[in-house]
């Protein structure tokens, strides 16, 4: 029987797929495709082949297709599965297990918890989960016991369980006593058994140390765990009780006889008796042999060993021989194998003295008749190896070894027992091994040395070690002595070290090039040696050439120039760039220049350049230009902007500040929101910074009613007016209500000083500045004399005095009253330290000398009085005490801060005392008493005023985060309370009914028209202040105005998702209400503060004007023009992927619409153009021009053999596209199923069409020849067609199939169907198969 080339593989595929079905517990309802398997089915089953002419009885269906096993058979591993299709399946164990532990209430460590799942217990569980990787779930049982479910890998679960028991369960302890010698069995090898026992029982087991005589083992854990652990420990001890240990003293010399050759004898005894026998190794000087095992078997083993010992002691004798110490190792052999070999052959033990002993005596012990043979073998072993040496200059050693030991490997592979040793610095090579092998190896090495000496040479040259690293560059590791190249300390930073290596990698490395070019080895000493000698080894001619080139390089390096470039250290990091990117670019531009930056710790500005003179000069200019750009871009100015306007400068989502940054190309830094600073810092080019500053100032000017005044003060006075660290000018700005005073940049020569702020404060600051300038500039007769007109600057006199910081507020006085009085009386200026100043005690007095002296005397007198501490008391009604001590004594803290730190003590609550004690400086105490009296008077004169404002306006009145109310409270010194918010108040219109004799006025609803309770705001304080506060509150009530806006513009004002109207509301701080679309109303309501309404209305009307202008523009753009064009030209007008029509649209700014082919009612020859009238006409002309060109075109059909179409079209149409572009024609090939598959249409101008047809006909002729040749070749290669069989094949026939039964509704399978019997590997259309769903 003839079989196919690989029938088994196909049958295996079929069998495997059926096997998979068998495990799913399903039987096939139809047979598999066996047509392809027929030639070889007879080799694997009882199915007969049907190839023979005589047909035998067909097999039964069950024989051909054995039934699949039941599902249970696949799952039960113990039972043998039924049926020939099945196979044993190994169950897969889950790697994740789950265990549940229960902790009874009485053993819970954390019982008292407010809420389950919180507190220390939850923290511990989280820690256990993180540490072990197991998953924990806790639940509380009805008996308050704790159930813990632990999931994870077995090891993780066991560790988690141990931690749970140790940390969540109360611990008990118990001891168990077992013999001391059994402790080591509880511990196990490397403590593994003890760890395993602790994990299993979730306990802690403490075993006493070996030097501790105690035999008590302590077990700590839960009661259950302790019992388990105790049981396990006692079991281990009981097992060891059955075993015995015995020690037998045997002379060390007889141990080899007991062990036997290669330990065979002792191994046999151990195997036969089951006893463990421990013989100390030869290196350990101990004589006892230890036996461990069952008592009876141990006794047998001891008896056998004793017998061997006694026999050997009687029969053996010894002889001593002298063997050279160097030959002892050959007698011993590798791992002592030679000694074991002698013992095995002769039964004689050879004793070798220790390696640290100087003795050369070797003792042989054995039976007298065998000692001779053993002695012969000892001498043979000793003389089997020899040591020899070969003279070879040390510099040649590396060449003898070869690259990666290649040369030496050839010798050692031939003679593996020969050991070759090279000693550094010595001119010899040592060989050691078998005598014959050593001789052969010696000859080979000597010939190698002779050859190398003949053709190799070396030379040493002196080059200053400073230049070595430049010669080596990177990859210096190729030089044996230059593995480490140390950079100079100046390049010690991480970035520069990285850069140095990266730069070196890109440069041409002199040493590597010389080595490769001249085939020599160049050995450069490391920097640490500071040696100047460089050694060159190799071919004599190459050595000389390398020497000459290296000396030339060194000479060139000596002529190189080193230049120090001064660059401020703050720019170094910028020049280097992130990860060295920028410095790498510079190094790439100037590869011959070495750039060294100083260590940041040195605080040096010197950058060193080294290289050829011209290159160094070019690099210097380049870097100087880079630094100049950096300096220009690092110009910085500070712009003081009132804090309340910072949010407007930032804009919503940072839009404003982002726009200013981008347009001015500057960096703008604003102070933090919680900072007191008002200064905005702008960094960049000077012109850009000035532009950004102007824009920021214009925003502030637009938002606030600020005045700006320019004062002319001579530039030479500016520094003295600003004062040390700006203290003087800061004092003026604070005194004048926080105005901003801007001096011109130092060195600009400008005399203009700008003062910006509220009008009154600006005028005040202007006067003070001018007054100060007059003080600085004095001259007798400076104002009247023409000839002697001069300005004489007098030196400003300054005095510093000291006072405790807590006195400062008292010295300044309320609202600066006291200090202003001193200044007015003396004319001197007094400056107190700012919060950021380090010295908080220092007070500076500036002015004319006599004025300063007088102010100094007055201040010192005040300070002296403050240092005079007194104690006083006053009476305060207890009903007022609470006001002073509430809010953690805030009122008392304010009094202490304002009046020099005076201490005010009120009596404790509960006592009825009205005595209040004050302690501090006399003046401070008096002032504090006066202030307390004022507060009491305010409290007694306090009234409550109601202000009715509808509840819907309360949120607006409060302002963001209550800022407006806080401001009113501070300004008027009152308390303001808002009512609770009333949700959906319901007002009853019915009159109240009098019940049970209640008076008519009680319990009734408020009269109609009276304010609701939820509308009333309560103000407490002095009457006049309450009235002022009420007026301020009423001024905050929003007002609504209406603006007429055409209804059709409403949706544009609202904007996409409300963005437009939201922007206007944020900008003008108002609420804009647009009526609902169904109302069709033109009225838009604007609600807000009166001050904002006008701006909002103007903004809204401006927006309306913009939208109306846009509408007019849209109307102009909506001009429509139709042009009639034959539909056959439409594709050409559109162009490939719409390229032509897109260009027309963009060029003329119009929209062009082609007719819809699916719309039958629409004229198919009308093209609609929409846009400005002028643009639509231009677009129409462009389309008509294209049509005119198309009308001149002709179409010709050319017959082209369909077999060459694919070749002419090319991959993805590249070839035909090239032809069309070249001849400016359009070529259309017939579609599949066309009546004439050979007809190709060419369209274009007549002359182009003719040329294109000629070209493609030439291509057809060329490609057709290839096609004919290919078809002829295929005819020869095609296998001969055999005649069909005379009789029709019946296919594969089986008896008793399900579809043959009379009651069966099943249909016999169609053997010819590729769907029911698909070929292996063939693609079949998806179909629901009877074999089950496709997986």
TrEMBL record:
CDD domains: KH-I_Vigilin_rpt1, KH-I_Vigilin_rpt10, KH-I_Vigilin_rpt11, KH-I_Vigilin_rpt12, KH-I_Vigilin_rpt13, KH-I_Vigilin_rpt14, KH-I_Vigilin_rpt15, KH-I_Vigilin_rpt2. It comes from the Eukaryota. GO terms for cellular component: cytoplasm; high-density lipoprotein particle; nucleus. It holds the Pfam family KH_Vigilin. GO terms for biological process: cholesterol metabolic process; lipid transport. Residues 845-872 form a coiled coil. Residues 1300-1316 have a biased composition (Polar residues). Residues 170-238, 242-310, 315-383, 384-450, 455-555, 559-628, 633-701, 705-774, 795-864, 868-937, 941-1038, 1039-1105, 1117-1188, 1192-1261 form the K Homology domain. Residues 1001-1013 have a biased composition (Basic and acidic residues). Keywords: Acetylation, Cholesterol metabolism, Coiled coil, Cytoplasm, HDL, Lipid metabolism, Lipid transport, Nucleus, Phosphoprotein, Repeat, RNA-binding, Steroid metabolism, Sterol metabolism, Transport. Residues 980-1013, 1284-1335 are annotated as: Disordered. It is found in: Cytoplasm; Nucleus. SMART domains: KH. One of its GO terms (molecular function) is mRNA binding. Appears to play a role in cell sterol metabolism. It may function to protect cells from over-accumulation of cholesterol. This is Vigilin. It comes from Sciurus carolinensis (Eastern gray squirrel). The lineage of its organism: Eukaryota, Metazoa, Chordata, Craniata, Vertebrata.
């Amino acid at each position: 029987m003839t079989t196919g080339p690989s029938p088994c593989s196909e049958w295996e595929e079929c069998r495997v797929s059926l096997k998979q079905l068998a495990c799913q517990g399903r039987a096939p309802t139809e047979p598999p495709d066996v047509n392809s398997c027929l030639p070889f089915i007879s080799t694997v089953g009882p199915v007969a082949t049907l190839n023979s002419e005589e047909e035998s009885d067909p097999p039964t269906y069950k024989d051909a297709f054995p039934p699949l096993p039941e599902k249970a058979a696949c799952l039960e591993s113990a039972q043998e599965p039924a049926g020939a299709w099945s196979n044993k399946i190994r169950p897969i164990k889950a790697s994740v297990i789950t265990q549940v532990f229960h902790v009874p209430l009485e053993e819970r460590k954390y019982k008292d918890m407010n809420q389950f799942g919180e507190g220390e217990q939850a923290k511990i569980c989280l820690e256990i989960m993180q540490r072990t990787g197991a998953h924990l779930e806790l639940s509380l049982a009805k008996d308050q016991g704790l159930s813990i479910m632990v999931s994870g890998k077995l090891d993780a679960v066991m560790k988690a369980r141990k931690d749970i028991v140790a940390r969540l369960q109360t611990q008990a302890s118990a001891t168990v006593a077992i013999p001391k010698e059994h402790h080591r069995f509880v511990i196990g090898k490397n403590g593994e058994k003890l760890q395993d026992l602790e994990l299993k029982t979730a306990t802690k087991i403490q075993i006493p140390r070996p030097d501790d005589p105690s035999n008590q083992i302590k077990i700590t854990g839960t009661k259950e765990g302790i019992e388990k652990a105790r049981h396990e420990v006692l079991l281990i001890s009981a097992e060891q009780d059955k075993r015995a240990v015995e020690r037998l003293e045997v002379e060390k010399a007889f141990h080899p006889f007991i062990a036997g050759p290669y330990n065979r004898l002792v191994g046999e005894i151990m195997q036969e008796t089951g006893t463990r026998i421990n013989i100390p190794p030869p290196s350990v000087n101990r004589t006892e042999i230890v036996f461990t095992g069952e008592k009876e078997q141990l006794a047998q083993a001891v008896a056998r060993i004793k017998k061997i010992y006694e026999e050997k002691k009687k029969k053996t004798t010894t002889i001593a021989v002298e063997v050279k110490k160097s030959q002892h190792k050959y007698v011993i052999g590798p791992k002592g194998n030679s000694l074991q070999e002698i013992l095995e052959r002769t039964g004689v033990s050879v004793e070798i003295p220790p390696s640290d002993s100087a003795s050369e005596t070797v003792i042989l012990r054995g039976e007298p008749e065998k000692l001779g043979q053993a002695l012969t073998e000892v001498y043979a072993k000793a003389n089997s190896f020899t040591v020899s040496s070969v003279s070879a200059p040390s510099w040649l050693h590396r060449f003898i070894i070869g690259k990666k030991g290649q040369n030496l490997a050839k010798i050692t592979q031939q003679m593996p027992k020969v050991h070759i040793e090279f000693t550094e610095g010595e001119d010899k090579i040592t060989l050691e091994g078998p005598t014959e092998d050593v001789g052969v190896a010696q000859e080979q090495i000597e010939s190698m040395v002779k050859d190398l000496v003949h053709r190799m040479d070396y030379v040493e040259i002196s080059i200053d070690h400073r230049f070595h690293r430049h010669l080596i560059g990177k990859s210096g590791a190729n030089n044996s002595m230059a593995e480490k190249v140390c950079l100079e300390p100046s390049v010690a930073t991480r970035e520069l070290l990285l850069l140095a290596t990266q730069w070196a990698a890109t440069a041409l490395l002199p040493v590597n090039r010389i080595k490769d070019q001249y085939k020599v080895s160049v050995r450069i000493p490391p920097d640490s040696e500071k040696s100047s000698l460089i050694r060159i080894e190799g071919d004599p001619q190459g050595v000389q050439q390398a020497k000459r080139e290296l000396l030339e390089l060194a000479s060139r390096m000596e002529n190189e120039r080193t230049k120090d470039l001064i660059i401020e250290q703050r720019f170094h990091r910028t020049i280097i760039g992130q990860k060295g990117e920028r410095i790498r670019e510079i190094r790439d531009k100037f590869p011959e220049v070495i750039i060294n930056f100083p260590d940041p710790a040195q605080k040096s500005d010197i950058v060193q350049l080294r290289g050829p003179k011209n290159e160094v000069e070019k690099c210097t200019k380049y870097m100087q230009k880079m630094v100049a750009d950096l300096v220009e871009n690092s110009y910085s100015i500070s712009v003081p902007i009132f804090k309340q306007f910072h949010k407007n400068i930032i804009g919503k989502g940072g839009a404003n500040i982002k726009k200013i940054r981008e347009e001015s190309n500057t960096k703008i830094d604003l102070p933090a929101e919680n900072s007191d600073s008002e200064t905005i810092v702008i960094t960049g080019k000077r012109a850009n910074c000035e532009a950004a500053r102007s824009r920021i100032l214009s925003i502030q000017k637009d938002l606030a009613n600020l005045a700006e005044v320019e004062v002319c003060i001579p530039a030479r006075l500016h520094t003295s007016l600003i004062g040390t660290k700006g203290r003087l000018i800061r004092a003026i700005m604070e005194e004048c209500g926080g105005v901003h005073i801007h001096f011109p940049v130092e060195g600009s020569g400008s005399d203009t000083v700008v003062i910006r702020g509220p009008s009154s404060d600006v005028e005040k600051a202007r006067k003070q500045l001018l007054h100060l300038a007059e003080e600085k500039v004095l001259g007798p007769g400076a104002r009247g004399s023409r000839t002697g007109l001069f300005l004489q600057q007098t030196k400003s006199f300054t005095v510093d005095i000291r006072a405790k910081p807590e006195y400062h507020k008292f010295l300044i006085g309320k609202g600066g009253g006291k200090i202003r009085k001193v200044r007015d009386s003396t004319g001197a200026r007094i400056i107190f330290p700012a919060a950021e100043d380090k010295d908080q005690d220092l007070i500076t007095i500036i002015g004319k000398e006599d004025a300063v002296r007088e102010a100094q005397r007055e201040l010192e007198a005040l300070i002296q009085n403050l240092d005079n501490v007194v104690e006083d008391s006053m009476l305060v009604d207890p009903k007022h005490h609470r006001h002073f001590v509430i809010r953690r004594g805030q009122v008392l803290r304010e009094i202490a801060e304002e009046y020099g730190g005076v201490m005010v003590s009120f009596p404790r609550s509960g006592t009825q005392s009205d005595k209040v004690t004050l302690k501090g400086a006399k003046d401070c105490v008096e002032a504090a008493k006066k202030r307390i009296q004022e507060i009491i008077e305010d409290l007694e004169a306090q009234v409550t005023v109601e202000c009715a404002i509808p509840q819907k306006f309360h949120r607006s009145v409060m302002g963001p985060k209550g800022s407006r109310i806080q401001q009113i409270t501070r300004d008027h010194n009152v308390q303001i309370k808002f009512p609770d918010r009333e949700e959906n108040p319901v007002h009853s219109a019915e009159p109240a009914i009098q019940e049970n004799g209640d008076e008519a006025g009680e319990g009734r609803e408020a009269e109609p028209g009276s304010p609701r309770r939820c509308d009333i705001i309560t103000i407490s304080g002095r009457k006049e202040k309450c009235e002022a506060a009420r007026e301020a509150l009423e001024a905050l009530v929003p007002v609504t105005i209406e603006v007429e806006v055409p209804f059709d513009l409403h949706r544009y004002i609202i904007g996409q998702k409300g963005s437009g109207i939201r922007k206007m509301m944020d900008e003008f701080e108002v609420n804009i209400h647009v009526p609902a679309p169904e109302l069709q109303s033109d009225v838009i309501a604007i609600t807000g503060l009166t001050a904002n309404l006008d701006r909002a209305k103007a903004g809204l009307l401006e927006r309306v004007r913009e939208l109306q202008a846009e509408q007019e523009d849209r109307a102009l753009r909506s001009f429509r023009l139709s042009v009639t064009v034959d539909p056959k030209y439409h594709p050409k007008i559109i162009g490939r992927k719409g390229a032509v029509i897109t260009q027309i649209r963009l060029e003329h700014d119009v929209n062009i619409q082609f007719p819809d082919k699916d719309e039958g009612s629409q004229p198919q020859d009308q093209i609609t153009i929409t846009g400005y009238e002028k643009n639509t006409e231009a677009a129409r002309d462009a389309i008509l021009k294209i049509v005119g060109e198309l009308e001149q075109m002709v179409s010709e059909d050319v017959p082209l053999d369909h077999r060459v179409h694919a070749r002419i079209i090319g991959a993805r149409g590249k070839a035909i596209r090239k032809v069309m572009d070249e001849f400016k024609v359009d070529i259309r090939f017939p579609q599949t199923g066309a009546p004439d598959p050979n007809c190709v249409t060419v369209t274009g101008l007549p002359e182009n069409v003719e040329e294109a047809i000629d070209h493609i006909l030439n291509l057809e002729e060329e490609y057709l020849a290839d096609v004919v040749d290919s078809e002829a070749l295929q005819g020869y290669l095609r296998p001969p067609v055999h005649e069909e069989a005379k009789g029709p094949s019946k296919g594969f026939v089986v008896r008793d199939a399900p579809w043959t039964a009379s009651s069966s509704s099943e249909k016999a399978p169609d053997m010819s169907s590729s769907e029911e019997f698909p070929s292996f590997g063939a693609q079949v259309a998806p179909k629901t198969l009877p074999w089950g769903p496709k997986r």
